[in-house]
Each structure stands twice: as C-alpha cells, then as structure tokens.
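#dry-run=false #mode=assembly
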Amino acid sequence: MTKRLTLALTGASGSAFGVGVLRRLVAREDVAEIALLISPTGRRCLHDETGMKAEDLVALSSKVSLRNEQNLGADISSGSYRQDGMAIVPCSAGALGRIASGISEGLVSRAADVCLKERRPLVLCLRETPLNRIHLENMLRVHDAGAIVMPLMPGYYTKPASLADLVDTFATRVLDQLGLPEDDARRWKG
Ligand SMILES: Cc1cc2nc3c(=O)[nH]c(=O)nc-3n(C[C@H](O)[C@H](O)[C@H](O)COP(=O)(O)O)c2cc1C
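#status=ok
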C-alpha cells in the first residue's frame, strides 16, 4: 500500500528542515502523494532562509501538490479523506497554539485537528526559543491529544559536517515518527 502524507511549513525559522523532510518523502517508493501546505509567513521564512518558493518545492516531484492555507474545503480538511499522517516542519508557536486549542481557522490547523481526531500520526517540529509557559502547556496538551512533539533539536552525535547533514539526519528521525523508517548508517549502534 502506498502512502499519502501531508507536510506543512509554517512561519518559524528552520524551513530547511521542512525541505529536508520533503526531499526524503519524495525519494520513497512507498510514498505516492504529498499534500504540501505553506502558511503565508511560512512562505516568507522559506524564501528568506532557503531562497526557495512554494513552486520550487512542488517542482521537486509530481508526487507533491500544493494546498491553499485558506481552502478549508480541501481534501485534507476531511477525516473521510484517507491519508497516513502529517508533519509540520517547522511548526510555529502560533500553529502549536491553534492546534492545542482546537482552533481550525486555516487548513494547517484543520488538517492537524483531523489527524488527531482520526488517530493518525501528527508530528509537530516546534521551533521557538526560549519557551514560555504557554508554549510548554500547549506542547503537553497536543501530546496528550496524541501528537508527537518533536522540537527542531537535531542530534550532534553523528558529527554533522554541514547544515545539510544536520537537516538530513533530523529528517530521517521525522520519517521514523511517521512510520517510514529509512536505512540510515547514522543510527546509533552503541
Ligand atoms: C522572519 C520570521 C521568523 C519567525 N520565526 C519564528 C520562530 O522561529 N518561531 C515562531 O514560533 N514564530 C516565528 N515567527 C513568528 C510567526 O511567523 C508568527 O507568529 C506567525 O503568525 C505564525 O503564523 P503561522 O503559524 O500561520 O505560520 C517568525 C516570523 C518571521 C517574520
């Protein structure tokens, strides 16, 4: 069975990590479709930090199709649409707060809400520092509702030589959480 996944990039620093996850997803034979969502501020961060536009990400593969953040009638807005999980990379504190509060006012928060209610994997790669009490409480709320809170905290034990290394190692950890384990020589072997 091939999989359908949703990847959202919201308005936080760390867009390169979202791009890294997308590259890993498109490379997999068992991933057939990737619904890509980028919030308005996410587009700005993506361009500021990587020089890329949404269209450049869509051009990576025919598996990738863009959804409009304002279109609450999109396929991924409904629980009846079969999909296998969602990752938000990077996830802004604002997106986290909306999801934690069940405020589905845009497609990112609605699609995430659907994942929680349908018990599908939802991985939130929060990027904010330092964290205030509201952020910490919201992380606990989404955790208790079934989300996987996976802050953008890459590991350093693989001795990354570049940002690309760091991004790629972290991307494989995100795919692990989506139930898509990769052959990865950088896994810790003791
Ligand atoms: C250049 C830039 C960088 C930002 N970085 C962060 C960040 O790292 N983490 C965060 O939570 N918000 C960050 N923000 C603020 C969010 O973008 C803002 O709260 C926005 O409303 C989030 O909207 P979204 O969740 O729809 O993308 C940043 C904003 C800008 C313009």
